[in-house]
Amino acid sequence: MIRGAKQIMPRKKIPNPIAWVAILGLFVSLVSCATNPVTGETQLMLLSEPQEIELGRQTDSQIVKEYGIYKNPSLTSYIADLGKRLGRLSHRPALAYHFKILDSSVVNAFAVPGGYVYFTRGILAYLNTEAELAGVMGHEIGHITARHSAQQYSKAQLAQVGLGAGMILSDIFRDFSNLIQAGVGMLFLKFSRDNERQADDLGVEYSSRAGYDAAHMANFFKTLERMNPKKDQSGLPDWFSTHPNPVDRIGAVQRKAREWQRELGLKNLKANRDQYLKHIDGLVFGEDPREGFVEHHIFYHPLLRFQFPAPSKWTLQNTRTMVRMAAPKEKALLIFTLSPNGSPEEAARGFVRQSGARVADSGRTKINGLPAVWLTGSLNTRQGALGVMAYFIQKENQVFLFYGFCGADRFNGYVPTFEATIKGFKNLTDPKKINVNPDRIRTVPAPRSASMRQVLEAPGAPRAKRDEWAIMNGMRLEEQIRSGTLVKIIRKGRVY
Question: Do residues 333 and 405 lie in contact, with contact meaning Cβ atoms separated by under 8 Å?
Fold first, then answer.
């Protein structure tokens, strides 16, 4: 049953089995008959195109809020122009496509229903030609045109509704609020390998129709396979978490590319390596310390000018909207975030109202000179009772919220850890921690014809980083390159 349905709908008598079959048949016939734009086949689909677009719009606002947009107007325009050109060559050319770069180091690209496509700056760092970009972009557009996410959403909704609760069609689709329950969770839907194969085929088709050498998409998949994936701090999944690898993916893409080249009679295929590399010159690489970093068990946020100690041996995950700290085996959690309320008192009341917490004790205090309100109490959940400690701290015109919780039976054991972190919150004043700059990609010409290893030695690539930098360039250390070939290297410093 859809969450909250009991409050929305009056109880209805469940029809007898024969009547129920008739209702079920009517329901399915009304909402599941849709023609797939790519295959032309009829398929289950609970989302009309306007509903799909609205779901995408609502999800987009959450994605942007949670992960942030990478601010580079020139690069964003370049990505969007190419994407819209490919969109016009797709099976849904009339759909309004939107292309955005997320400020995340994780290597991924993904799409949500309704025409929204996202590239992380992390994936842009590992692409090496415009043809690779076009192939991956066509792949994501393919997920939209084939309505893969919309299909998954429809199946999930069908299972959630259950069809046996006596719900009426107008109640389920009365407004879009029920459609956006997935929210940012849309990012974590894992496509099937059949979906991935079809999206690969469509990526090859769309990029080929745009005049690119679509076999370059296979080069990117080779790069992915060579990478040693690391868990990202942003909370986003990496490529293979959402895009499972079909059997013989690289060979299939190469064969499909040759087929489309023959069918379209393509000559003088584009790769546009230098054009792409020039556009990503100056791209932030890896974690951006200005958005928060940990050093010697202290979390620093240079932009917001605060710091606090991070619990030792806890896992810390930093996003645009929160810092999540988890004890080993997640036996306790400590969340740090901004409150939308204007004062600590308002923030505390809002927290109690929204969480349903039962307050055992509360009061006012100061944390390193900053006014604060605190409370302790408990929450009832399906997993049992949780002990809660929350602090609401005023810093200038913002209220910061810490709340720690764990099983009520071991709450007292975690109180010292919660308090050590919370009471360590204070203004950041150290210029060395404030004036930090991220690593950036610089594209430089190879000074001479030599192996990639020798070329990387010239700009002083750390020995431990040379293989990683070669992978980033889509090459191997032993591979020979010509003088003047653009090569990506990593430099720390500000770009003006």
Answer: yes
Phi-psi region of 46 (alpha: psi -120 to 50; beta: other; left: phi over 0): alpha
CA 420 – CA 468 distance, rounded (Å): 38
187, 62, 122, 316 alpha-carbon torsion, rounded to 10°? -90
- The secondary structure of 81-96 as a DSSP string is HHHHHHHHTSS-TTS-
Cα dihedral 303, 307, 313, 317 sign: negative
Percent of the chain with pLDDT over 90: 63
Rg (CA), the chain: 26
- Cα–Cα distance, 368 to 309 (Å, whole number): 13
Q: What is the pLDDT of residues 50-64, one digit of tens each?
A: 888 998 899 899 899
Q: How high is the pLDDT of residue 36?
A: 77
Longest CA pairwise span in the chain (Å): 82
Q: Would you say the C-alpha torsion 40, 45, 47, 53 has a positive or negative sign?
A: negative
- The whole-angstrom separation of Cα 122 and Cα 371 is 39
pTM of the model: 0.81
Distance (Å, whole) CA 199 – CA 134? 13
Query: For residue 115, what are the CA distances in angstroms to 110, 259, 459?
Result: 11, 27, 41
- Contact indicator for 101, 115 with CB cutoff of 8 Å: no
Reduced to 3 states (helix: H, G, I; strand: E, B; else coil), residue 73 is: helix
Q: Model confidence over 333-391: pLDDT tens digits?
A: 999 999 988 899 999 999 999 888 899 999 999 999 999 999 999 988 877 889 999 99
| Residue 227, token pair as written in the block | 């990478």
381 forms beta bridges with 384
* CB neighbours of residue 11 within 10 Å: 7
CA distance readout (Å), 494 to 21, 73, 282, 437: 66, 17, 9, 6
Cβ neighbourhood burial of 435 (10 Å; 0-12, 13-18, 19+): exposed
Locate 484 and state its tokens: 């003047």
pLDDT digits (tens, 9 = 90+) for 120-171: 999 999 999 999 999 999 999 999 999 887 777 666 655 444 433 333 333 3
Q: Which residues contact residue 218 at a Cβ distance below 8 angstroms, ignoring those fewer than 6 apart? A: 249, 250, 251, 253, 254, 257
Q: Write out the two tokens for 468.
A: 């990683």
The pLDDT, as a whole number, for residue 239 is 84
List the domains of the chain with CATH numbers: 34-279 (no CATH), 289-434 (3.40.1000.10), 438-492 (3.10.290.10)
Average pLDDT of every residue of the chain: 84
Nearest by Cα to 246 from 196, 198, 203, 199: 196
